[in-house]
Amino acid sequence: MACAVPPAGYKLVPVASQAAARRFQAGVHLDESSYSAAALELQISELRTDFEELYNEALWRETRAWALVPEGSSSVTGSGAPAAEDAWAGLVGIRPATLDGPRSEGYLGFLAVARQHRRRGLGEVLLTHALNAAARAGFAHVRLVSLRCLYAAAVRLYDRAGFVSEQERHYKGEVTGLGEWVFDVCDLRLDMHRWAGALAPPGAAPPQAVITRALPQGPFEWPGRAARIREALADAAPSPGPCGRA
Description:
The protein is α+β, with helices and mostly antiparallel strands. It is built from 6 helices and 9 strands; from the N terminus they run βαααβββαβαβββαβ.
């Protein structure tokens, strides 16, 4: 099985601190213009329903997490473990999908790369490392949930890994300061017998066909996503319809 080799200047290290992982994941969702201690605390609260393993201690005990850290960073202790999350370049975590019954299915709980470290192949390294760990753990499948419109780059990685989209759920909501938006929530699954130990080259794996299921829509406040939507708009404006302005 191929190893996930970090690019020069980065080191892959295990993460034991749930609080540090939670702060990093929340900080990635904030852009520089909206970053503050108060905004970070709000974001930490907002993400409670999205990343259960970062808040539930029982799930965290079953989660294996790793950070990519720049070589020579002060966030790495002498033992090689990260001591502070502010200098991390990326983070990934995988766990059993359920704590009850047979643990034959894995769940990719989080995959994030700090904005200043993107477009360097770090997401591919993190995803490859997590899926190789899932293979060693004996998982038959790995599942995850993502928003295709806001995390298009991540979804392209999942396509290259062999994930298929089982369904998409569309929600309409009021985003503070940005008006009404429609979000597409993707349920993705990878059959581990398809995992070859490395991602397919870019462009080799076309996006999977999806089964779309329309759900009842209702307004809701989503202040924690405003910064991420602005970031997505700056990168490439989401298309209207399944994801974008309602």
